[in-house]
Design brief:
228 residues, alpha+beta, Nucleoside Triphosphate Pyrophosphohydrolase, eight-stranded mixed beta sheet, CoAse, manganese
């Protein structure tokens, strides 16, 4: 069993007070309740976070890297229970090995009408993970934080609409959209971010655009003003 690192303790303690950008604030009512598990642990390359790659055959967010998660069911007791259940169903994570540290405010994704609560977890007793739900998940990765903060792995990704948001090239995955927005916030608020070049802009790959069109939804990238 490993101890929670100081940076994660501090981040979790202030998570509920993180300011949510206006375009991600939930409406007064409506929206499907959902949750994702941001599961941090101590891996062979230092601190890491668990990500999944969704199935390219999926109905929603096909082929996209993501945090384990999904809708809140009546028996979950809320976002924390939902995040742990979904992580177990999608990756085989044993919830008994996870210490829940806190939650971020709800984030609203208008293209899927989801009110998503990110849940912070510390993997004090790691269990083996795999694509436990092949129809929904193609692969599971423990992505080292050192790779996420590497300036060479960070870009701004431009959607055909012209809007751009943060993205990461890690472990053969292009992490973008909602997941990248949350990771960008976590790295910055946790004091882990290293200086990187937001003027390095790439276009969203054509195959990703095609999958999005197949789902008949339009992603809502983060509008970012490059920092000096």
């Amino acid at each position: 069993m490993t101890e929670v690192p100081d940076w994660l303790e501090r981040l979790a303690a202030q998570a509920a007070g993180i300011t949510v950008p206006r375009y991600l604030r939930p409406p007064a009512d409506g929206g499907r309740l959902a949750a994702v598990l941001m599961l941090f642990g101590e891996g062979p390359f230092g601190p890491d976070v668990l990500l999944i790659q969704r199935s390219s055959r999926g109905r929603r967010h096909a082929g996209q890297p993501a945090f384990p998660g999904g809708g809140v069911d009546p028996g979950d007791g809320g976002p924390v229970g939902a995040a742990l259940r979904e992580a177990e169903e999608e990756t085989g994570v044993d919830p008994r090995g996870v210490r829940v540290l806190g939650t971020m405010p709800e984030l609203y994704l208008d293209h899927s009408d989801n009110r998503v609560t990110p849940v912070f977890g510390w993997w004090h007793t790691p269990s083996a993970v795999h694509a436990a739900s092949p129809d929904e998940v193609e692969s599971v990765e423990r992505v080292p934080i050192v790779e996420l903060v590497d300036p060479g792995n960070r870009v701004m990704l431009r959607h055909p609409s012209g809007l751009a948001g943060p993205a990461f090239h890690v472990r053969g995955m292009l992490v973008w959209g909602f997941t990248a927005m949350v990771l960008d916030t976590v790295l910055r608020e946790g004091g882990l971010e290293r200086p990187w070049d937001p003027a390095r802009i790439e276009d969203l790959p054509a195959e990703v655009v095609r999958m999005g069109l197949r789902e008949r939804i339009t992603p809502t990238p983060r509008i970012v003003t490059p920092r000096p």
